[in-house]
Amino acid sequence: MLILDVCPKLITIPDLSSAKDLEVLSARRCKCLLQVPPSIGHLYNLIRLDLGFCEKLKTLPSLKRLTSLESLDLYCCSNINKFPEISSVKIKKLNIGGTAIEEVPPWIGSLCQLQDFYMSFCTRLKSLPNVTQFPEVSTTQLTELWIQDTAIEEVPSSVSCLSALREMHLSGCRKLERISTSICKLKSLKLVDLKDCSRFESFPEISDTMDALEHMDLSGTAIKELSSSIMEHLPNLQLLRLNHCEKLEHLPNGFHNLTSLKYLYLRSCKRLKSLPTALPVNLVRLDAHNCTLLEEVSSVKQLIKQGMLTTGFWSEDYLSISFSNCFSLITNDLWHGILYLAISLKVSPLRLQFNTCFLGSDIPEWFHHECVGSSVSIQLAPYWYDNWESYSSFILCVVVSFDQFYSEERSFISPLEIQCKLHLKTSHGHSLHLFQNLDLYQGEPIPYDKDHIFLWTSMFIREEFSDWETGESRNFSASGYCHVEASFKFELGTPITYEGKLDIKKCGVHVGTETIRGIFLGMNVRDRDELQLSPTAFEKMQGLEFLYVYSCSLKRIDLPDGLQSLQIPPLGKISLPSKFDPRNLVQLNLRDSHVELLWEGVKVPPSIGHLYHLIRLDLAYCERLKTLPSLKRLTSLESLDLTGCLD
User: Fold this and answer.
1) Domain named C-JID: which ranges (predicted)?
2) Residue 419 domain boundaries
């Protein structure tokens, strides 16, 4: 092994004719290196040759006899425009990115074990080789193709021969206009990166399902609309970036068919006026920052509501929605979704973590506690923590002013951090505190203009509290913690690139609504008799949407028809009433319960098959369940769990 990396005065590598057993030679970042001796061509045992960033190096000696070579790295050897032939069939990794080549050398076709091929930043490269000229074994080995920042104009149909290809990186190819429709034959392809391909107007029609594709970046392209074939044939797409697609005017109504999509980025799509009428059910990140013409976002209300109904109690999902710098936004539907989230605080522990950002200067009027400035104190209800077993939930809100900030010269800042410090003081004088940071944005810095509202949910876990004076952990469920004053202090972490003035103008805390939209009967009755309910207990609760019941028979109980989520926790003794009309249910969870039949004798609707809105049905480990009615009409059903139903 000979390592000569970062030798700033090295002009030539010494004669190596006597180093016949040398396996590794690296002279990386030797910026004055002008010459590599011909003797290197006789190093029959050389496995790795790394000359990356040798910017003055112009030529290489013959490498034909390097029969053991597996890795050749010439990255950013910017004066090399021709390569000597390589005949080693063992080459697995080849990096010729950042060189001055205008075409790919023909001997590439003989590299039958090539796995990683890197050609990015070859700004003179105008075309790709015909992949069909590669030997068969080569096309089944290559897994990554890097062609960023080149002058290529199209990806040929022969790319379909790369059957093992998992990643295709084409970002910054500003002359690229076309990709062959044969791309759909790449069944192993997981990632396609076309960022800043500014002439690329349309993703090719996909005629066959691409099950492996998970990530697609079309940011900075010239696309005007998404092909319907994307919605039809990409069932496992999880991330879609459409940032700075300035010609994109709308997303298709079938967009919700991307049921696996979790992350959608639409930053600076300045012609986008509306979101589709329905969004993918698993979406957890929606970033529409700086979509200045965006007005209609009615589907966001349903997205929040759906997340609340279908997310598990301890899910790690965090729904994050950003509409910063969306000056035309009509926020009514967004506020309705947030209000729905607020209602759930009185029903059960938060089922979904959430944050959002949009223009505004006022704390919502339905917030019980608000204050001018950056701090607010509230008196918590007695035994406020009892319902939630180990954590408590709040909705927090601040209005931040961005004074004299936005301009073309200073168009971005680093991610904004908001810190919440919670101080609890009890009637016995005990003090507890908890710090919590909200780093609102990751990755690309974000510009702001005018006042913005930042709103998020927060779960404060008991074990994270510590004594104000000693710093020791405390369990505040002990006697004496039922009368608590809570003080919330908000602080901004000012980004180092920000030159204007940041200020928290107002803040607020919401702890739930008194309107009963849900009931959580969380009694622990393992050693007690079954909880008895009056048949008319819910008779007048027509607005009831959530019902979670432990150890309680519902057979003779009248349930409101508007119920959307019904959950019977483990070992619940449950029989469902025959008069209950369940057509509005979105989630039905009877996991590990004692249910035997579903709606025996029900007349309207005649079967569970009329639950057109049902998304999740969980009957796992219902060991007494013997029969199921027809499920043919459950057109919205996405999850059915019958695990452990032995009969």
Assistant:
1) 359-510
2) 369-510
